[in-house]
Amino acid sequence: MLPYPILTVFLILMWLLLNGFTLGHFVLGTLVAVFASWGMASLRPDKPKIRKWHLLFKLFGIAFYDIIRSNLAVAAVILRGRPKGHVSSFLLLPLEIEDRTALALLAVILTSTPGSAWLEYDSHDRTVLLHVLDLVDEEQWIDTIKNRYEKLLVEIFA
Amino acid sequence: MILAPADLPLWAAIAVAFFLLFGASLTLIGAIGFLKLPTFYERIHAPTLGTSWGVGGVMLASMIFFSVTSSRLVVHEVLIGLFITVTTPVTFMLLARAALHRDRAENTGYAPEKKKASLPVQEEGQIRPADN
What we know:
The structure holds two protein chains of two kinds. By secondary structure, chain A is α+β, with helices and mostly antiparallel strands. Chain A folds into two domains: 5-43, no CATH class; 53-156, no CATH class. Chain A has helices at residues 5-19, 23-42, 53-80, 100-112, 138-156; strands at residues 87-94, 116-122, 127-135. In chain A, a hairpin with a 4-residue loop joins strand 2 and strand 3 (127-135). In chain A, helix 1 crosses helix 2 and helix 3 packs antiparallel against helix 5. The longest helix of chain A has 28 residues, at 53-80. Chain B is mainly α. Chain B has helices spanning 10-36, 40-43, 47-69, 77-106, 119-131. The A-B interface holds A 14, 17-18, 67-68, 71, 74-75, 77-79, 88, 90, 92, 107-108, 111-120, 124-125, 129, 131, 133 and B 26, 29-30, 32-33, 36-37, 39, 41-42, 44-46, 48-49, 51-53, 75-76, 78-79, 85-86, 88-89, 92-93, 96-97, 100, 111-112, 115-116, 119.
């Protein structure tokens, strides 16, 4: 009946947020959400296996903080120029995660963070090509991504 | 009860003005960077200012303003922020990979070469002698 219960709940919630919290819209939204989740099921995507929900919030918290910080950093680079010794460069990052949802989540976080750009994932080598606007130490960057984000993602989708 | 914008309490007015200016300035700086930065791969970083805290600031300002003036919690702006965050990487990667592909094809030297690009060819080469 409901192949994606969480998706259905969120679709209903979105419908109510956009149209107002009334009983009529709840019924209509439920109808739309149920049909939409059947449509989703016929696409047969991988079902993401999330093991530790609470860590997801920790991940979002860290990402939220990092995005504010790098927003200000990139704004400074644009206005004042790059400090001496800093370069913009490509970075090949080896990844351990293979789960599609985890990869998508990491791509969204790295893309939303100004200053780092996810360019190309190679599923054969399990590497991703990044471009970093303000690079000082390559090792430190790789370390940050691996310890700050990837460790958490491995735990969440283990 | 719907308040007129002029009756907005001071704390709300300050918060709304702060977030609105914060978001708008970040978006403007992103646009300036888009114009100023020298290479394509550097330029793609600039608009992310607008799609992250640029939209975030304007979104928060709008949520505070309408929640206070209409005396109820208005949160549907979160959806705008969510959808922008989730959809930006798609166009972003399309543009970036198109640029990588062109730079590699034309050997402009901007993009790093792909390693192991010859792997499938090697496998073919190994099979062929066995067939003969």
